[in-house]
Task: structure prediction
Amino acid sequence: MSVVIKDLSAHIGESVALEGWVETTRSHGKVAFLILRDGTGVVQGVVLKKAVDDATWEAHGSLTQESTARVVGRVKQDDRAPGGFEVEVESLEVMALAEEYPIQPKEHGVDFLLDHRHLWLRSSQQRAGLKVRSEVQQAIHDFFYRRDFTRIDTPILTGSIGEHAGTLFETDYFGDPAYMAQTGQLYVEAACPAFRNVYCFGPTFRAEKSKTRRHLTEFWMVEPEVAFADSEDNMRLQEEFVSYLVERALENCAEELKVLERDTSKIDHVKPPFPRLSYTDAVARLTERGHDVTWGDDLGASDEAVLTEDYDLPLFIYNYPKEAKAFYMKENPDDPRTVLCDDLLAPEGYGEIIGGSQREDDLERLRERIREEKLPEEAYAWYLDLRRYGSFPHSGFGLGVERTVAWITGRHHIRELIPFPRLMNRLYP
Ligand code: 4AD
Ligand code: MG
Result:
């Protein structure tokens, strides 16, 4: 019977078959060892020369790093062994001998590792980070499912610019220009009158010409849109949502966070309410600290780092100047120079993980903003229709999955938190 390593505890004393990849082997005369990884865990196998036939002994001797093997053996509990079990090998069969493996247990440069991303995925820290990503993605769906949101899949090829013209990937669509979606937002807004509360979750694309630790050209974003919600409701949803994602990672990924050496005391208290600071107060605080910032500018990574220093929870910065933000955000009736929006900044220097806003629901003001931004009005006829046929107050936000998982896992660069990162200078593998 073939079993997987994570289920070995149910087979103590039994003889089982395991299939997997060999991480290392060593041999001391008449006793030899191998570490086998099968994607669910890692286990040590012990081969005694006198207990196996020659074919098995020789097969063990031929194993190279990352060879595929089928091992039959008896499961023994051993608290000293990694994973808590050991397998006394009865027979071993090589399924495929691996050529000399490029990734060795030593320091490699990051470019080398990214060139070998298809193999680097197998390393323990990479596996741990991507496991947390998978858990967070599942938690995202669970959160919205339990709150009765309907999932709406939005198009990746679009004719209307979702955010700003500066970072578009353009492609030829049978002679006309099409863009890779920067956001699904405009489309989830259209789905609200059909389903009330909705969300989309998929890859989004930005031709970012910046090589920073928090920019990818292809990243995953989840975007809820809520009917009859204002900016305050929006921030409350965000803090509950982010707290839930952290809680799920702590609950179900304790092993992975340990592999990543994450200091979980930095995140185990992440619960609502999160602190809030208006943009105007943020600029005043930055100026006080000697930072060169002008009211009207968007905040950059270094501004965000200074602002979050004072907090051990994510921090909301709300109501930015109109000119710093996208065309669809609702004008603030109390200060028309600003819009009803927020960015949520993660602590420990991670910075913006969410951008959200109440949407402009006034037809004329929205049309005016589209003109001011010099966006092609024809492409937004359908979007303006949403304000013609039953306009309604509504709000939503977008959370970047890689940035959120980088913060939760404490990894420096978000490129490790997506299986195959797309960066300005990288399309391979
Ligand atoms: O602030 P952004 O641009 O907001 C939107 O796209 C809105 N349409 C969302 C909405 O209201 N429905 O992006 C949202 C989040 C950012 O806070 C960040 O976490 C992530 O998406 N993000 C990126 N992540 C990785 N690489 C990039 N180049 C990113 N650009 C944005
Ligand atoms: Mg933003």
Q: What stands out?
A: Residues 5-96 form a domain with the OB fold (Dihydrolipoamide Acetyltransferase, E2P) fold (CATH 2.40.50.140). The pocket of 4AD (ligand 1) is lined by residues 163, 183, 185, 206, 208, 215-216, 219, 221, 223, 352-357, 396-398, 400, 402-403 (CB under 6 Å). The chain is about 30% helix and 25% strand. The chain has two domains: 5-96, 117-417.
